[in-house]
Amino acid sequence: MTYEEAASWSSMIAYVAEERIMPPWKPDPTYSNFVGEKHLTQEQIDHLSAWAAAGAPLGNPDLVPEPPTFPTGSQLGTPDLVLTMSEAYPLPSDFSDVYRVFVLPTGLTEARDVAAVEFRPGNSSVVHHAIIAYETSGDGATLDALSPGYGYPSFGDFGVATDGSLTGYTPGIGAIAYPTGIGNTLPANANLLVQIHYAPVVTEEWDQSSINIFFKSEEDPVEREVLPMGFSPSDLPYGYPSFQILPGAISSFMPTKVLEDDISLINIQPHSHYLGESYHIWAQTLEGVTIPIIRINEWDFNWQGAYTFPNLLRIPAGSTMYCVATFDNTVDNPANPSNPPVLTTWGEQSTDEMLLVRMQYVYYEPGDENIVNGNNLNEAPGSPDVDADRGTFFPLSPNPANTQTQVELHLNEAEWLRLRLYGMTGQMITELMPATLLQGGFQSISVNLGNQPNGVYLISAEGIDFRLSQRLVIMR
Questions:
Q1: Burial classification of residue 406, based on how many CB atoms lie within 10 Å of its CB (0-12 exposed, 13-18 middle, 19 or more buried)
Q2: Contact at 8 Å (CB) between 115 and 177?
């Protein structure tokens, strides 16, 4: 949080950067890109190493950014609806994995369009992941009533038919803001079904998680519903019985699926346990064009995530989607939970294994390639926009913003500068600050965003013969 703290850890910072242990970004950035990437270039790593070797000098204190703020109740702001487990669930202390479904009535008297969903773990040390769906039949509540204790057990699915699904949770995931016209619609009288995977514990632990829901404005109704798809052993030629990882072997499996419709992918979430070694997912069109989706060269059970494409990713109808998942069941795998290795198949315990990929998509419409996905709100701040001769435009804060955001600039010398707000298609929407003479050095300017609807914009700082810009998400 401070220079002094960073300097005291300079040798360790250089080491973990050189070994690419940190930042913990698993997707290969040379293959495909995602919102909020947390990785360093070799040039940046070399810069850190040189800084540590030089004794960790301070540099220019005028460029030190304000420390980030870490919200406690929500990453997005004030939710429109908060649903909390009605009681705390006690976990058995027998070191077993628990899959439990909890029924959370929404109490909605009319259908509402959903802009974002944010799962908040009550006990983050035991919540391994969560998947969320909704239904109106009441069948989930019936199973809950028949099962001893709060909630009911179910592995793999929710145990009942569902009407749709919502964004799930893994540790570190950020809330996703869907683009204009895209989202989910919660029906009136819907119940959320929340399946939580609790990690094994040997001490008494409790969890009472909650879900924040943000509704879209009346000006931004859902025109296209977000739909789920994915890969599992059911997509292998012989189904689940063929998913067997032999002891002492490195095994690869390749499920495939052929698309009947044009789709636009929003995000992807691969999942494996301790034997996972790598994932490689791509599509091939009928014309033989390869569309890279994601490649994870070194799987790490402790750093799983959901990855959002910067723009909607079109996969044409007739394309074949491929997934190659590789598992290391040898003694050379330090994460292998069995020593000596044993035959491992699909199962709900962490000592079992999974080949599971979840994706969200909408049916394709022309122009989807230009639609920018909402920010992953857990992402690191964006990069400064730099003109070496004129100045630097630093990432906006807050971002996403509600009615105001802070523009921070460093000008090499005095400049006449105006601030303008643009849509992502390039149209100028409004002038945030008229042409003003700003002195050289650091400038911090608070700008009022007015009543602009939710969406993705650019704030442009325009001089006489240069322009710097930063992306802004408005979410209310």
A1: middle
A2: yes
E strand or H helix that includes residue 88 = none
Instruction: Pull the structure tokens for residue 431.
Output: 């002038």
Phi then psi for residue 368, to 5 deg, are -60, -30
Cα distances (angstroms) measured from residue 413 to each of 410, 417, 459: 9, 12, 21
Q: What is the pLDDT of residue 457?
A: 84
Beta strands in 208-275 (DSSP E): 210-215, 224-225, 227-231, 244-245, 250-253, 256-258, 263-271
Positions of the chain with pLDDT under 70: 69-71, 374-383, 424-425, 475-476
Cα 191 from chain centre: 24
Cα distance between residue 89 and residue 122, in whole Å: 10
Strand partners of residue 28: none
Q: Can you list the domains of the chain with their CATH numbers?
A: 1-69 (no CATH), 70-224 (2.60.120), 226-376 (2.60.120.230), 381-476 (2.60.40.2550)
Predicted TM-score (pTM) of this structure: 0.75
Q: 181 to each of 25, 310, 443, how far by Cα in Å? A: 30, 17, 36
What does the alpha-carbon distance between residue 270 and residue 27 come to, in Å, rounded to a whole number? 10
Q: Label residue 399 exposed, middle or buried (CB < 10 Å: 0-12, 13-18, 19+).
A: buried
Question: Residues 114, 184: contact at Cβ < 8 Å?
Answer: yes
d(CA 52, CA 12): 9
